Task: inverse folding
């Protein structure tokens, strides 16, 4: 019988091997079935490997020697924090693969699409399981390359130009990360994340204070680009809107979250004291801390993304700008440096992934079944597509923060963390007003979108519209159902998150 560590390794190998095999399967349905089966197998293997993590909050790891002269190892590590992200990535990738079988019926080279989809999955999966910084960087770049081809070959509009823009932005961020990784090795002599975490104090103290600041800055730039925080967000609206819909669901649902994972693992866990102590002088007699600066970036991202979403009539662009806004919520939770915020930020990673994955897939149904994504051309679809309507309402209301849905749990924890950090200071009052404004704006663009799409008069050309194929609708209903389950029963997921937060806060020395 395989150990938990061996099952974890197998969960990576199965889709990696399938990404090669699927190229030789020319039939669309057969190639999609093979890709989906490999992802389901990876999900089952992950679940089996995670038992020590779920029951005891322990860590499962398997490490191999790789580049001996530099003491670089290659391996995989599963703990409560990485489990949350790994599970989300695998679940959404499997559902996106099911969705793609029908969605690609009028597209070319479906076998190559599924191969790229599997490699994209392996890149994201490897990022959250990596045991050292070089391995992390390789998977980070692997995440980029197949997603570039997925946009360039199967996207919409000026897809090649948009894919190049996406590549250049995110590769610039990756270079900033690589420079920080090199600096860490120069001062500590190790690339091992495991070693850095297990002897965090001694390793971090070996780095001069100024160098720590530059290392944190490099990481934050790279992760901010991936998370599309203002002002390095410009690649996202085009890439998410013009990517094929199942890829849009993955880009927004889970790829953005890889930046959040890396921020928790490499900035908050290892360099919190630097982050808290750093000062940025905005005027001769006025400075703000690094935490306050990134908090302002988070609020600017929340408000800018929301206001831009209000101005859209293209449903995919509305959802793309909404993703920018929602990553502001995640960033706010992760960087207020307390348990409430960190729990809320990680819970919102799940809430946003489920809801936004479903909403992008709904947009894909409109494109596939109705031939449009223009909100002005839609209307009265509630009576024609009742299940699609219910799933859309559940997902959108979750992101608005309606009670009994998962978004309410995460946003409540995030806002509690922000109030706990800033209290009754002028910053606290300002942030309270900004949180209120962001929530009102989110409600505004989602309620406006739902009213225009699902109510009113049905256009003549859509009088005979009915629910989409189960292959398209099924994944959406699964994601919407999970938004309800995690809203009504938050404890099981929050318990896993608390295990992880306990380890992170211990490393950070809070």
Result:
């Amino acid at each position: 019988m395989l150990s938990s560590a061996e099952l974890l390794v197998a969960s990576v190998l199965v889709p990696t091997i399938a990404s090669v095999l699927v190229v030789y399967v020319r039939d669309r349905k057969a190639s999609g079935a093979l890709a989906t089966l490999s992802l389901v197998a990876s999900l089952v293997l992950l679940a089996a490997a995670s038992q020590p993590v779920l029951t005891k909050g322990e860590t499962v790891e398997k490490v191999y020697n790789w580049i001996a002269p530099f003491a670089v190892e290659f391996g995989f590590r599963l703990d409560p924090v990485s489990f949350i992200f790994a599970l989300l990535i695998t679940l959404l990738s499997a559902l996106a693969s099911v969705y793609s079988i029908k969605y690609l019926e009028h597209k070319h080279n479906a076998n190559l699409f599924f191969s790229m989809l599997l490699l994209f999955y392996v890149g994201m999966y490897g990022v959250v399981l990596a045991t050292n910084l070089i391995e992390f960087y390789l998977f980070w770049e692997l995440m980029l390359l197949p997603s570039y081809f997925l946009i360039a070959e199967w996207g919409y509009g000026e897809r090649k130009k948009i894919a190049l823009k996406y590549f250049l932005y995110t590769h610039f961020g990756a270079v900033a990360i690589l420079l920080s990784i090199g600096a860490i090795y120069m001062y500590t002599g190790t690339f091992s994340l495991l070693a850095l975490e297990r002897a965090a104090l001694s390793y971090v103290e070996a780095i001069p204070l100024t160098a720590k600041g530059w290392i944190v800055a490099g990481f934050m730039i790279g992760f901010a680009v991936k998370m599309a925080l203002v002002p390095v967000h410009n690649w996202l609206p085009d890439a998410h809107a013009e990517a094929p819909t199942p890829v849009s669901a993955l880009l927004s649902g889970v790829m953005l979250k890889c930046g959040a994972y890396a921020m928790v693992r490499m900035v908050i866990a290892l360099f919190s004291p630097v982050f808290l102590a750093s000062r940025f002088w905005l005027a001769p007699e006025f400075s703000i801390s690094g935490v306050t600066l990134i908090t302002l970036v988070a609020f600017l991202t929340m408000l800018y993304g929301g206001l831009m979403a209000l101005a859209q009539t293209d449903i995919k662009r509305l959802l793309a700008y909404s993703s920018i806004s929602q990553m502001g919520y995640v960033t706010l939770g992760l960087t207020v440096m307390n348990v409430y915020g960190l729990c809320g930020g990680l819970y919102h990673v799940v809430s946003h992934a489920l809801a936004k994955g479903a909403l992008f897939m709904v947009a894909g149904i409109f494109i596939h079944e109705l031939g449009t994504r223009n909100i002005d051309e839609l209307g009265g679809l509630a009576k024609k597509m009742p299940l699609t309507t219910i799933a859309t309402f559940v997902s959108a209301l979750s992101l608005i923060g309606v009670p009994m849905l998962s978004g309410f749990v995460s946003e409540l924890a995030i806002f509690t963390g922000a109030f706990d950090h800033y209290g009754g200071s002028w910053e606290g009052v300002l942030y309270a007003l900004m949180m209120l404004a962001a929530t009102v704006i989110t409600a505004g663009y989602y309620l406006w979108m739902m009213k225009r799409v699902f109510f009113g008069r049905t256009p003549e050309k859509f009088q005979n519209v009915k629910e989409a194929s189960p292959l398209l609708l099924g994944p959406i209903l699964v994601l919407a159902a999970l938004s309800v389950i995690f809203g009504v029963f938050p404890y099981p997921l929050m318990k896993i998150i608390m295990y992880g937060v306990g380890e992170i806060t211990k490393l950070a020395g809070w």
About this structure: The mean pLDDT is 91. The longest helix spans residues 245-277.
